[in-house]
Fold Small ribosomal subunit protein mL104 (RPPR9).
Amino acid sequence: MRRLTSPLTRLHLRTLLRRCISSSATNQSHHLPCSQFSLSKTHLFTSPLPHDPFSFSLYCTSFKPFSSQSEDPVKDQEETIAQSLSSELVKELDAESLSIPERLDLSFSHITLTPSLILTTLNLSPDAGRTVLGFFKWVKSKESFNLDDEVLALFVDYFGRRKDFKAANDVLTDGRGVTGFKTFESMVDRLVRAGRATQAVAFFENMEKDYGLVRDLNSLKLVVSRLCEHGFASYAEKMVKNLANEFFPDEYVCDMLIRGWCVDGKLDEAQRLAGEMCRGGFEIGTAAYNAILDCVCKLCRKKDPFRLQSEAENVLVEMEENGVPRDVETFNVLITNLCKIRKTEDAMNLFYRMGEWGCSPDETTFLTLIKSLYQAARIGEGDEMIDRMKSAGFGDALDKKAYYEFLKILCGIERTDHAMTVFAKMKEDGHKPGLKTYDLLMGKLVAHNRVDKANALYKEAENNGLPVEPKAYMVHPRYAKKKSTAMKKEKKRETLPEKMARKRTKLKKIRLSFVKKPRKMQRRAY
């Protein structure tokens, strides 16, 4: 029987051919000028052998020079295999076609599976749906691959993103005996994020019987924390009270419950629960007070921003009375809320007083203040805060995302020149700008009628290999060049008759203005 040629063989041949050409070109590069070394698209797509199975034009739509290829061939090969697997999963199945495991066995029986390869394949197949169950069965059937808790968590997370919890349940059932804490964490997280708090509580109650998972205090803490983070504090509190005889709550669980009510915006419930815990002998920690402080600030911002500082001061006084120390998170809550109501000066004063309580600013403090200073058009102080952040050892937090937020604020307040300065600083720090960054700056430069700089950025993005496309940006009317108005007509010199007529009219008006109106004679009655 003739064996079918797999698509992977062609991909391997393509990779080998690239390596051979690149190695031969490297060996002969000192004999060839640059113009001879580079290949053009015309040569590739006008090949004399269009049906040659080894031709590049059959497999790639765009050509990249060999010098710009990735330095990690293993990673490139893994991505190629993942794309082939993804295309196989997305294919539409006919009634007579083979099942997914059989099809994958035909084409990919010789590959080596790894967790990273499986993760890449799942990320490339968001529309595969229930076909991924066949992929899971094929992975499970591979004897050379050890199915563990980490791989199961990847499949559970994939179906959880699609809110297909029936398929996730099938994965957990098939993986019984292999499932562990990572799979449990992924399932609980996806259930809660989908708004299914009741199912999350039921999953915790039946985890030992249905899936063979260990139910202990750590798993209870995980469920409580996920429920409280997403505003399901009532479910979490009820579950903790029902299981108090089996798992006695500690201070962490109590703090998480208070935080859950605060996330939900119910300050009365949080204070009620804090009072019950104090009467029960629990000590409320700094984390719970920080949650209460944040809830108070948010409610004040929503209803009466002028009361924010006084209400926050009451919470801080209560902390001091109960002997609860402040930490950096306390100051971050205050600084963030002050910056959101545009009280940047008060936030800066609080920043300089952090040392009085033995606290040092962290990356969140610096990033919040930098954005607030830029928003207040205090450009110099914002730049100084960036330098101060780097000298404090938090330079790693100035990543591509942070710089993009800075640029967005500066473009929003029409400080385009300084945005270009921060953009240059971003590249100096070794961060490669993305497509959104270039699009933001090009749009703002064109709006300011600086088309030359926008075109330079477009060419720079093209050289960096980004898929930029020409767009029609609008020039703001304020910066558009005004059309030259028609020249005013020059005044002609008056002739003598015109001049005399104008003078007569003027004198007549002056003369009439001094004429006295006659008084009416009043008759006397005799």
In short: The radius of gyration is 36 Å. The mean pLDDT is 81.
